[in-house]
Each structure stands twice: as structure tokens, then as C-alpha cells.
Amino acid sequence: MPEITLADLAHEVRSKNAGPFWVTMELFMRDAAGYRIAADASFLNERVIAELYRVEEGTVQIFRIPSLNVVKISFPRPLAQGSLRDRDMHAGQHHVPLAGLPIKGSQQNLWK
Question: Radius of gyration over alpha carbons of the chain, in Å?
Fold first, then answer.
């Protein structure tokens, strides 16, 4: 049986440029059950994002918006937008590791 990922529970997972120095990612969850998983601080927190994107944990900001079933995550870009080594000028591909984050164990029970 294939793993369930955040993308499976979301209507949309996207990332975008939030100015030349920040990346923002948004999880638009399909329903309240999916939102409970995405908003669960024991599952998705600053440490997880820091490890996933190799950024400092203290720079990660997570905003949980229960009325919209949305989780928004922001962190500084590793390189300024448009700099010589910037390979994703609009931060349009940053969401892929987040979307692929597997839902395991107790989080799956929240969904069912």
C-alpha cells in the first residue's frame, strides 16, 4: 500500500516568492481532518521544516489558519532572488519536498 502524503490530503500545496529574501509555502487542506494533521505541531513544526529545507530552525515561521484549513510556512531564501546561483527564481518548486512528506502512525488515525 502506498504511503499517504500531505499532497494526498491537500487541495493544493504551493510555494511562491515572498520577496527577494523569503519563500512562502501554503497547504490548502481538503477538509478539517486533513487540516488537523497538517496543523499538528508534533507532526509539522519548525524543526521538521528546517531539516527538510536545510534552514535555521529559528528562522522558520508557521501560521495555522483553522477557519480556512490552511497552513502557511515561511523561511528565508538560501540565496537572494535572481542571484548568480539562484536556481528557482520564483520559488515555484520549493513545495515539492513538503508535499511529499509522509503521513504516518498516529497522524493517519486523525485522518480516518
Answer: 14
Nearest by Cα to 78 from 4, 19, 23, 17:
23
On average, the pLDDT of the chain sits at 86
Q: For residue 40, give Cα distances in angstroms to 5, 22, 82, 97, 101.
A: 14, 24, 34, 18, 14
So where are the chain's domains?
4-106
- The answer to whether 59 and 77 are in contact (CB under 8 A) is no
Coil, strand or helix: which one is 109?
helix
Q: Is the pLDDT of residue 1 over 60?
A: no
Decide: pTM greater than 0.90: no
CA separation for the pair 89, 23 (Å, rounded): 10
Residue 101 — pLDDT band, cuts 50, 70, 90? very high
Strand partners of residue 4 = 103
